[in-house]
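Subject: complex prediction, re-run

Hi both,

The earlier run crashed halfway through, so I resubmitted it with identical inputs.
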Amino acid sequence: MNVAQMNSAATPAANPRQRQWLVDYSMPLGYVVLFAVLSATVENFFSLTNVVGLMLSVAQIGMVACTMMLCLASRDFDLSVGSTIAFAGVLGAMVLEHTGSVLLAVGAGLAAGAIIGAANGVLIAYLRVNALIATLATMLMVRGLAFIVSKGQAVGISNDAFIDFGDSRIFGLPLPVLVCAACFVVFGVLLNQTIFGRNTLAIGGNPEAARLAGVQVERLRVWIFLIQGVVTAMAGLILASRITSGQPNAAQGFELDVISACVLGGVSLLGGKARIFGVLIGVLIMGTVENVMNLLDVDAFYQYLMRGVILLAAVLLDQLKTRGERR
Amino acid sequence: MNVAQMNSAATPAANPRQRQWLVDYSMPLGYVVLFAVLSATVENFFSLTNVVGLMLSVAQIGMVACTMMLCLASRDFDLSVGSTIAFAGVLGAMVLEHTGSVLLAVGAGLAAGAIIGAANGVLIAYLRVNALIATLATMLMVRGLAFIVSKGQAVGISNDAFIDFGDSRIFGLPLPVLVCAACFVVFGVLLNQTIFGRNTLAIGGNPEAARLAGVQVERLRVWIFLIQGVVTAMAGLILASRITSGQPNAAQGFELDVISACVLGGVSLLGGKARIFGVLIGVLIMGTVENVMNLLDVDAFYQYLMRGVILLAAVLLDQLKTRGERR
Amino acid sequence: ADAVKIGFLVKQAEEPWFQDEWRYAEQAAKDKGFVLVKIGVPNGEKMIAAIDNLAAQKAQGFVICAPDVKLGTAVERAARRNNMKVISVDDRLVDGSGKLIASIPHMGISGYAIGKQVGEGIAAEIKARKWNMAEVGAIRVAYDQLPTARERTMGAIDALKAAGFAAANVIDAPQAKTDTESAFNAANIALTKNFRFKYWVAVGLNDEAVLGAVRAAEGRGIKADSMIGVGIGGAKAAENELNKPAATGFFGSVMISAKEHGYQTSVNLFNWITGKAVPPAEVQTRGMLMTRANQAEVRKQMGQ
Amino acid sequence: MNAYLQFDQVSKVFPGVKALNGVSFAAHAGQVHGLLGENGAGKSTLLKILGGQYKPDGGRLLVNGQECRFGSAKDAIAAGVAIIHQELQYVPELTVAENVLLGRMPTRFGLLDKPRAYQIVAEKLAAIGVDLAPDARLADLSIAQRQMVEICKAIMQDAQVIAFDEPTSSLSHRETEILFRLVKELRAEGRTLIYISHRLEELYELCDACTIFRDGRKIVTHDVMAEVPRERLISDMVGRELSDIYDYRARPLGKERLQVQGLSGQHISQPQSFSVRAGEVLGFFGLVGAGRSELMRLLYNADARKSGSVLLDGAVVPASSPAAAINAGIVLCPEDRKEQGILATASVAENINISVRRLDLLGGLFLRHQREAALAEQFIARLRIKTPNRQQEIRLLSGGNQQKVILARWLAEPGLKVLILDEPTRGIDVGAKNDIYRIIHEVAEQGCCVIVISSELPEVLGISDRVIVMREGQICGELPRAQASETAVLALALPDTAAASSITAEPTETIESSALPIRSIA
Ligand SMILES: Nc1ncnc2c1ncn2[C@@H]1O[C@H](COP(=O)(O)OP(=O)(O)OP(=O)(O)O)[C@@H](O)[C@H]1O
Ligand SMILES: Nc1ncnc2c1ncn2[C@@H]1O[C@H](COP(=O)(O)OP(=O)(O)OP(=O)(O)O)[C@@H](O)[C@H]1O
Ligand SMILES: O[C@@H]1[C@@H](O)[C@@H](O)CO[C@H]1O
Ligand SMILES: [Mg+2]
Ligand SMILES: [Mg+2]
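This time it finished cleanly. Structure:
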């Protein structure tokens, strides 16, 4: 029916089980190889501090990538995550400085995220606004709100309990990394082991068929966005804690990083396809590239070039194995 | 019994011709109303200088929106246009300063655009890299190149002939605006009156059907990207002429503006749908909103909010009229 | 002992200013024999990651121009956690409650002070041209979402006001992005709304912003003789403009010394790490107004 | 007569499936060559090779004695081969004319000559007797109309070889007649025609010769179709004997279970009512666009209602969403498998379990993988779904097998009270049809109401206890099994003018004896 099939004609020998295995594990395997090569060749790469630093550097992206995966799997799109990170951070910081209560601050941040997410969901699912435009609009509005409430200034945080969250470690792993790991586990289970995840894939694969099969498409979509909002707000609060301030212009361009990580991990923008393991690898690749370039002191201008090249290399490699599969 | 008859049988009230007319012209009409209201209420809005200024402010977006429309119509996506604008401007300025020849400078800029576009096309059509990732990668690489060749510095232009281009007027209209208008005419004809345009819509609407009908899908896609590259480079050169220098960090975020204008104008991200008139209106709405907010002295922070609100309002209005259409 | 390795983190690596700072820091590294690692840190998240990255590379300290001054506590903590020495450059860091962070030595400029120099330079030129202040409009190309940008432009406007400029004659032109085209569009509208003025002056956060305003004015026939634009930075964009055969509305730029900032901070940090000298708690550098008339001299004085 | 088209030892392998295994046969100019075989036997694959869409893994293809190696569909078109694919391949946003002339639009001075294009297409449509506006968008047409556009597209290529892959599966009576006339005309013009169908009557009517496939192999080629007895065809195809494929057994009907009262919506402007008794199989017949699907979609809450209510066992079924209908025990197996049925990139097992799994979750949220697997295996066996394994993506199955998977999704519902099947046997082979009819009757025997929409009149008559006929968005009559003859049903279904001329023999009466009053149209 398409190229894919025609190509497979060319390789009739491929054993389907082997093939499936290759498709499923080539990304992780590729990453393991990359990691080994880098460890051997790049000085200081393979050290506890560096690896922990690397993980810390992708903790926020990782958390949000988990929910973005669901969003993309349901054939939606969310550009507002960067702004939500900023807004949740700013709001949390302001509440914290006014009330001194960490609980209130976190509550306010998460509630804001939930509201933003739900608003996106309602706009897209019920009012049928194109997801790109709807979330572009919320992206602008939420960024505006972040600037307005903070008067354009970063909001400093002096509460030590809050700041410590971003700093403290358990078994040598920083809390943000653990939270991110927890997200991967939770959303991995959600995607693969629950009806929620299956229905998400179903509405991404064929919304009309899913609806006729009894999936409450609109409600599900709102939930997906709402969860995305909450997780993003959490990432924003953690970021605020790590950088000890709520920054209204934080995380600009964050949305593209997150979406790239997902796509790199094999999530289809056309919906219906997602693998949590792939997303994890996508996130790690993004972080590793950044990390290694800094370790190697690559010139800032060449970093652009390199990032582009590596992004391409990663998808091209991934392409090789899916030769013969549908795009 | 044809469709028209069947529909009218089912919904006796709605005259299908009227309905079609409404669908086709509601956007332009809406804009005319908006324009009239603004002219009456916003001081200085309805003046030759302001209207010309408005058009000038969207000239670059307009040019690129014409080709982006084709790109989206064929179910593709291009994030690299902002970088291409910067690179073409920088390259043109450098060639101009070295050789003093406007012809060579323009040639170099356009050639660069063509190469970037063709590279995108080949990556996407033949190597089957996801369009988002492919153009994100070229976006990064081309931006990097712009920085590298210019060493991060603006490249000054002192050639008067070149500078005059951005400045001079015919019948009171600046040349960039006229070039943009020409693009709308050319691409309008291309979309609606040529095989190229029909095939573009066909591969966006159903690539498989197009292929089975003998359309050379891959080649067509490369052409679309190539043309987009050339037009974008032209926009970059015009920008360089207007600001009398090639700036490597010009036009960041430009891609989202262009894509938004297209989507606002009714171009579907799922391919197969495009109307040049809609795109024109989309571009004008974007420019008008910006213009009016500045005329009204809206605070910069509230501008974000307003831009978001207006984007939403525009699509929601557009949504109302398509109510009842099959999704 | 291991060779000394220091980081140099800047908020906007693409900006010519920081490229220059890095270049001079490299020179210091060569002169003093230490290893320099340059990392761009566009936001708080990347900044923390970069500091951790430096630690992994076993750097002993870093010079930083943070993406936001309120990141002070984060910088301080990250440095302490990794046992690194830190000096701030350009922008002075503060903590959560806005207090200067005493433990981090600083060398830099005050955005507000630089802005004032812009305003003073313009005021002096208005006097020299014998314009009637009432007939002059001032465009503030604003990008208030960036705190330094606001400080600079406000400094300029305050200086103008101090010289007798009417507050009502100041027109804000908010740019959507920090590039020349956005400044052009914003200024264009400001000009449309205020055709009553005979003369114009323009200020902005950098040379590119002012350039946009100058181009917009030219489009309406407001040329060099009725326009005074003064930028900030003095790098290539300004140089291009000041070296054009005919004068334009771009009157000059307040140049700041990337050499001093880049070279001296790195040397100070090196000395601190090697135990040779503790850096001074604060050094304020000054900018100089560079115009067509005094270009060469200013460049020489600023050492570039 | 020479063999214009020859397949020689053609093979094609997909991961896990040997779709074609050394197939050889020849088709002659001026003949219609029928292809028969169970779902998944490899018929469509053969046509895709002929159309240049796939390259064979082995064997040769000869057109007019010349060996052909098509690199793409373009090459096949150039060689004079036109294919009407089983899965319709149209561009929804383009008009009829643009679709028909896709890739071959006439131009003038480099620009499209739209008036001419529209004229050409309008003429062709008129010539073949299809009443369609050339400027209508495909997205606005019914499937049958889209199918006619596809046929027109292929005909207009003026190809020597024209292959039809189940063209009638989504056509109703009238279009089918048009198609048959067309096929006969093309044969008379001396073209080589390949015709795939699961409807034996059709094959007997049209085909001169036929080839039977099973499991990717050619079983036999009959040079004279008319001489082959029906039983022989069936047993060659399915490898077993089938006597009465409808398998109708009279069974006692219970009391009225489903009552539909005054339903109307966007495409059903007048309120419609009917009811179904427990254990009853109710057939719905009508011409294309008669509104059967629309009425069922209203019943199922798939479309918004303007008026009316649905009662099941006396209780009102909430009108909120299909989910509400499903929870009440009403399910609908939709007519458009590709758009409304399959989750293309999901597995066979996933497609079967998507709805039922809600009833068997751990803690209301977690899946039970083993039970889902078992259920999937059970239906793969019961409906003889041909797939390498249950994890295969459904889009890789043959059309008929996809249809079986979607049926399985609904048959798997345990609390089934009303089963609505919209064209359930579209694209399904005789053997499987028989399986499905048997299941329909089993379900009915358990007291379930079964509503079957079908455009195949013999099927409706063969399995239904009662037939309701619709015309132009309204129920225009109903007939109990005993009175539901072909002529009687057609007389109700055809527009008045046509009806007047076609009813000659039996006087048809609209019977009002059943449970609900029937609305006859004014
Ligand atoms: N792209 C593919 N990948 C894997 N298997 C495929 C692919 N296409 C077809 N098949 C398999 O090849 C076999 C033959 O399929 P084909 O579509 O030719 O059957 P068919 O005879 O047309 O059946 P039907 O009557 O149901 O249309 C089936 O088992 C199908 O599952
Ligand atoms: N969303 C829609 N937009 C416009 N017209 C529609 C839409 N849905 C259905 N129609 C039209 O409404 C009429 C009723 O169609 P419906 O599918 O119910 O008929 P049917 O009796 O099931 O016939 P068949 O399915 O065999 O075509 C058709 O003419 C169809 O084209
Ligand atoms: O951000 C500015 C930078 O642009 C340069 O001018 C030096 O000072 C910094 O504060
Ligand atoms: Mg088939
Ligand atoms: Mg139907």
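The mean pLDDT of chain A is 89.

- K.
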